[in-house]
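Re: that backbone. Tokens:
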């Protein structure tokens, strides 16, 4: 599968929003969004053109997809699955993406960004209910226990990432024992619980794929 290997700050500039692709490093003063740098390829003095409805929906979809670090084909498969589920498609999509193992590892503070969490999972450092799982797209279920494998508990990147727990804790649908490096996915979150992505307009994404 193709993957983006360019500078991730360029993606934030394209969307004109902090996507937190570098984790805590995005909070530094060096962030191009803080410096109000224009989108790549744009003349800083050029007047912004009016976007069509399609253009607005496309940018919303791209922003959402990039936050979770997914490629188009995989993201569309998740959308199709959300569409087949009972309930509101946009909320179903949020629930599915939050259940991804790489996202849960990031939310549990075992990694400082989703891309780093994906790497931690791929390298076999994660156990789910006592069994090694190295598939980032694995969907965690309610009451599943996610933990760091015993030999991996001394990894510096995991210890450094866990320091954020003391500052901000974890999301309300998770429980974490930072000393044991073990967390529990208590329940699938509702849309209103995902406060850090409150500005995402998921209905626009549904409309984009419905065309």
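Recovered sequence:
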């Amino acid at each position: 599968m193709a993957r983006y290997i360019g500078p991730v700050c360029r993606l934030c500039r394209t969307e004109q929003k902090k996507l937190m692709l570098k984790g805590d490093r995005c909070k530094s003063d060096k962030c191009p969004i803080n410096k109000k740098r224009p989108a790549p390829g744009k003349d800083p003095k050029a007047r912004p053109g009016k976007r069509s409805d399609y253009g607005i929906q496309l940018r919303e979809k791209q922003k959402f997809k990039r936050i979770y670090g997914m490629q188009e084909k995989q993201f569309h498969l998740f959308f199709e699955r959300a569409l087949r589920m009972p309930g509101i498609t946009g909320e179903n999509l949020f629930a599915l993406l939050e259940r991804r193992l790489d996202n849960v590892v990031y939310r549990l503070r075992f990694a400082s960004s989703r891309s780093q969490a994906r790497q931690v999972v791929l390298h076999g450092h994660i156990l789910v209910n006592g069994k090694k799982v190295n598939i980032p797209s694995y969907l965690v279920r309610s009451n599943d226990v996610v933990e760091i494998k015993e030999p991996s508990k001394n990894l510096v990147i995991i210890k450094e990432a866990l320091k954020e727990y003391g500052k901000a804790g974890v999301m309300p649908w998770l429980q974490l024992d930072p000393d044991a490096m073990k967390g529990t996915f208590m329940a699938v979150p509702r849309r209103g619980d995902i406060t850090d992505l409150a500005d995402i307009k998921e209905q626009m994404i549904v409309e984009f794929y419905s065309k």
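The first strand starts at residue 126 and ends at 128. The chain has eight helices and five strands.
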